[in-house]
């Protein structure tokens, strides 16, 4: 009984002697003025003009409802998020860079990522008009004289932490770690024209494609006789063409050389995207929904950089990125109606000088 009373007395004394932690306001640097253009790009992976242009689109959505309690300004929220994308590090590190706590940094990254991802219809889009389709086909043709191409399609894995729950194992890919299998379609200029970032790592590339909006548009003839070039992870159809696994003659060799060079932009776009935003290489420890928003947001930012003719990200500071692993599976796919590859090797490539 005495021990219980002594414990109660101790807790009361601790409560009476409790001193609330002093409220501190961290000094916030004006990063737009503190760094020259080169140092700014190294730290935030984008130029100042691109950042200011982006801020005009999302400023109203990410602005705090009040300026009381030293509220974080929209530009600092955006720079904190970019810094998190640039380091792929802990949220507390990005928060320290701007002068906020880890919990505040987490909320800012979530809100800003969602705001940027909402710009997807503006900056991530497939060709719609006849002139856009013709221009895109011409630019792909100029790479290796491959005809009728409007996009290069592929998938890349973005590492995540286990989402937990009964369906967690669906996210474990064949390399053994948890990931999202993200499908993109790239243009000759490395811009991302479509992105699908909702499928777990165990899903095959072809499955993701057949469940996508792009597949339905192709099947319905939305882009007429246009083609997507892909690797052997996809089925060869009348609207998607893949290389020959074992070419048996010079025509098939020529076809393979042409299609491999034509689909090279999608592979290069992954390299540029992950070097610019290392968070996509090192993996995300955020909630699944926030991670999906981060992926789409990085694709939007990548396209903004491409529009600014910034195709070569600055060097990373004391960081070595993981290698971009190859996940393509050479599987047998059930034949579908039509075969554009056969038509091209019979009617086009034999007459290509």
What does the model show?
With 353 residues, this protein is α/β, with parallel strands linked by helices. Helix content is 48%, strand content 9%. It has helices spanning 2-16, 31-34, 37-44, 48-62, 74-87, 91-98, 102-117, 120-123, 130-144, 205-210, 213-219, 250-262, 264-276, 279-282, 288-307, 340-347; strands at residues 149-159, 179-186, 192-200, 227-229, 240-241. It has a five-stranded mixed sheet with strand order 3-2-1-4-5. Helix 5 (74-87) packs across helix 7. The N and C termini lie far apart (100 Å). The mean pLDDT is 88.
Protein traits:
353 residues; alpha/beta; five-stranded mixed beta sheet
Largest sheet: 5 strands, mixed
The beta-strand count equals: 5
Oligomer: single chain
Mean pLDDT: 88
Order of strands, main sheet, comes to 3-2-1-4-5
Protein structure class: alpha/beta
Number of helical segments with 4 or more residues: 16
List low-pLDDT spans: none
Strand content: 5-15%
Radius of gyration: 25 Å
Can you give the helix content as a percent range? 40-55%
Shape call: elongated
Helix-strand string: HHHHHHHHHEEEHHEEHHHHH
Distance between the termini: 100 Å
